[in-house]
Amino acid sequence: MKSRREIKQGAKRQIRGSIFMLFLISLLWMLLTTALVGGSMFLLGRGVFNSIIAVDWEAIGLNWQLWLETLANLAVDIAAMLSVTLGVTWILSMLLGAFREWSVTANLNRMYNGKKAGFGAGFSGFARPWSAFSTSFMRGLFMFLWMLIPIVGFIIVIVKTYSYACAMYVRQDDGGGAVGAITTSRRLMAGRKWKLFVQDLSFIGWFLLSILTLGILFIWTIPYYNQARYNFYKAAKEAGPIGRR
What we know:
Blueprint: H1 4-15, H2 19-53, H3 57-60, H4 64-112, H5 129-147, H6 153-163, H7 167-174, H8 178-189, H9 193-201, H10 204-212, H11 218-239
Helix pairs in contact: 1-11, 2-4, 4-5, 4-11, 5-6, 5-7, 5-8, 7-8
């Protein structure tokens, strides 16, 4: 398998010429997510406001029993609206997150193959909604189930994060089902989780420098980091599984 140095050098070369397009795509995804959350909060606020002004406060007067009943009813209505809003927002956020991950992977694959990042590829998750969502959902479900193990669950989840790191890459590369992609990722990462962890750690300097530049350098650092991870997957796939499952 290629060395970390080769993987990172390849990533630097592959993202060259695509930084502006990747930044534009990321900006649009950010705006889309902000619009989703902002729209949900606006609808919640409007619902709360309508519930409040719908009450005939003059008719209540100084009747404390009516005040308590009215406030209790308002609390129930607001709690219901809040629950629905948060639930819908969470579901839509999950969908957007999965679509974005699929889209990012599509451009990583393009750049790996010597092409520039494409605008259409940057939103290709919307064209494959089930593939994107099912992979993301099943991976999250497995992580949640591991988390339920007492005491050591958190540690296991950290390890499994690296075991399942290639799931979306595999699903887009090879097709098949979500569980199959996760299984393949687990086999590819057997004996390689520590190596990817060390590769991630090697980016700490870049992330700190990006923070010192008030986030400006993240425009380059994040594509570099993502491409290096994708290159790690390709190198692992080329070398084939090692060790035990």
